[in-house]
Amino acid sequence: MTDRYPAASPAGISWRDLPIRDDLRGLTPYGAPQLDVPILLNTNENPYPPSAALVADLAEAVTHAAAGANRYPDRDADELRKDLAQYLGHGLLGANLWAANGSNEIIQQILQCFGGAGRTALGFEPSYSMHRLIALATGTGWVAEQRDPETFELDPARAVAAIERHRPDVVFLTSPNNPTGTAAPLELIEAVVDAAPGMVVIDEAYAEFFRPGTPSALTLLPGRPRLLVTRTMSKAFAMAGARIGYLAADPAVIDALLLVRLPYHLSVFTQAVARTALAHTAELLGTVDAVKAQRDRIVAELTGLGLSVVPSDANFVSFGDFADPHAVWQGLLERGVLIREGLLPHKLRVTAGTEDETTAFLDGLRDVLAKESAQ
Q1: Distance between CA 196 and CA 165 in Å, rounded?
Q2: pLDDT tens for residues 198-248?
Q3: What is the pTM of this model?
Q4: Taking each helix axis from N to C terminus, what angle separates 52-66 and 268-279, rounded to the nearest 10 degrees?
Q5: Mean pLDDT across the chain, nearest whole number?
């Protein structure tokens, strides 16, 4: 990866020339290409924008918040946490919830509190790369164990063996997993929690897209004070631009996180937007079934094309196998469709869009594959 803004420094230097920490020098910034093309299916966003009614309510809420912008916000976001608890159900209360600026800040706070220098975090890769990057940024050692290279699933016995071998302070398990889309069975989560000497984080950023019958780790929270379940409003709630993430856990966990959270970390505007969105839960989650239908359509049609497709419980699909995945990615880009490359060997990942966006992707892919076949 090259520097994004190479001309920004009048001195002609890059960040590599600055006295940054040595353990950061081998890293590259997280990010997906942001290109101006008609069909954007690379960052797992919800393709449906807020309705006119919701936009009006958001504007009213922000205007009301602006009238008191000279005062600090509720630093513990108590009312928002109550709303989140009501949304999740499972007998949770506001004391069980914590919110921050996107699930990435939630992950950062977890690692600031339970990780850090001399401690380690364990993940099962391929998985969400920010777990590793935030661990390293907080001075936490990172240990990676591999998922099954064919199915990307994780055997409970294998996971337990890895935990016993490394004795990590924090374990990350993503369900549905990004970039594969595979969900974690409850027996796997239970085995991991029982074996882990420290905290276990179940990242459920895409949980609302679970296929029928796929359970949430929220059902396992009672009696497990070292289990944390993280969520986001960026995906199913179509609030990626608002940056709202949250977790559910034992109240003792939230009390611990207060030690590392920055004062007033959630602005009055963020809290107002989040609470307004939650008041429109039925409307916003009404788009989830439409997205899931397009996801299942993608799985069916790509399978019909003879491609290898990873079963998905998320709003995206990983598929292949390609001798030259970049050529396929480039071919789609030339047809105005941007998807994601470089996450899995020989595979690409596409977000489920609207029906028209999905059609454009499928038509473009057929055209690219036909051209390659002819050559």
Answers
A1: 11
A2: 999 999 999 999 999 999 999 999 999 999 999 999 999 999 999 999 999
A3: 0.93
A4: 150
A5: 94
pLDDT at 9 over 80: no
What pLDDT digit, counting tens, does each position of 56-92 carry?
999 999 999 999 999 999 999 999 999 999 999 999 9
| 134 Cα distance to chain centroid | 13
CA distance 167 to 163: 5
More confident residue, 4 or 62: 62
- CA gyration radius for the chain? 21
CB atoms within 10 A of CB 373: 7
- 3-state SS string over the chain? CCCCCCCCCCCCCCHHHCCCCHHHCCCCCCCCCCCCCCEECCCCCCCCCCCHHHHHHHHHHHHHHHCCCCCCCCCCCHHHHHHHHHHHCCCCCHHHEEEECHHHHHHHHHHHHHCCCCCEEEEEECCCHHHHHHHHHCCCEEEEEECCCCCCCCCHHHHHHHHHHHCCCEEEEECCCCCCCCCCCHHHHHHHHHHCCCEEEEECCCHHHCCCCCCCHHHHCCCCCCEEEEEECCCCCCCHHHCCEEEECCHHHHHHHCCCCCCCCCCHHHHHHHHHHHHCHHHHHHHHHHHHHHHHHHHHHHHHCCCEECCCCCCEEEEECCCCHHHHHHHHHHCCEECEECCCCCEEEEECCCHHHHHHHHHHHHHHHHHHHHC
Side-chain half-sphere exposure of 227, counting CA atoms within 13 A: 21
5, pLDDT greater than 70? no
